[in-house]
Amino acid sequence: MAKITNLIGYGIVAATNQVGPHIKHISAVSNLQKQIVSDQIQVRWSSTETSLKNDISATDVRGYKGHDMLAPFTAGWHTTDLEPLVIQKSEGSYVYDVNGKKYLDALAGLWCTSLGGSEPRLVAAATKQLNELPFYHSFWNRSTKPSLDLAKELLDLFTANKMAKAFFTNSGSEANDTQVKLVWYYNNALGRPEKKKFIARTKSYHGSTLISASLSGLPALHQQFDLPAPFVLHTDCPHYWRFHQPGETEEEFSTRLANNLENLILKEGPETVTSINFDHVFLFHMHYI
């Protein structure tokens, strides 16, 4: 593989022609690690091990191998055997590592920095709020003016189908966990305690906490964690190119998936299924976009 620097890929990626060490690691890991590697091969390339081996200079910063942080979506040998990619600053859509190398942040952080890094308006607003009131909760009918104003502004956007309330969380995982609780609460209040099952798609990603990881249709998030939870069901991944049958048109593929979903609901019992959680766009695997 020819040397490629600042390759746009899964998040932030820099690859070189030294793929051999990674292949060696692939052959040595367990079946579970192989599954993780298969899903995240470009994440492995994002480690600076390769660039440090080939582009090492007197000014390069090293010494983070075997660091003390437990990193999510990271195999144990990543932290013991590889130097991590340490990001230091951001400018718009680009980030820079501790050695000054520039990368296009193709994943926008984790889909949450779409306005870019170090956006002056966001920095100014955050600084102003931190100086005035850095934190306060919303328990027991308490709130803050920015929270109330933002909730109203968000709900005003839904003019076609007015929503009742906005509930703020810290992450997508927490949002998915909360919506499951709210749906259960709603059905319990209506006297439908059996209506508790959720349906999501295989290959989807909804988060990494207990419920959101269960909703995610990724084996690596389930194996060794006793997941998915029994109230979560999974149906087909709607990726025509990968999963269509020989000679099957896209319309026929879509019809088959719709029929499979209906049959799953009928098998489980419509009175037990409360929600269907589908991605608008498959974001976890870049080739689904």
Automatic annotation (TrEMBL):
The keyword Hydrolase does not apply. GO terms for molecular function: pyridoxal phosphate binding; transaminase activity. SUPFAM superfamilies: PLP-dependent transferases. InterPro entries: Aminotrans_3, PyrdxlP-dep_Trfase, PyrdxlP-dep_Trfase_major, PyrdxlP-dep_Trfase_small. It holds the Pfam family Aminotran_3. Keywords: Aminotransferase, Pyridoxal phosphate, Transferase. The keyword Transport does not apply. Belongs to the class-III pyridoxal-phosphate-dependent aminotransferase family. This is Gamma aminobutyrate transaminase isoform3. The lineage of its organism: Eukaryota, Viridiplantae, Streptophyta, Embryophyta, Tracheophyta.
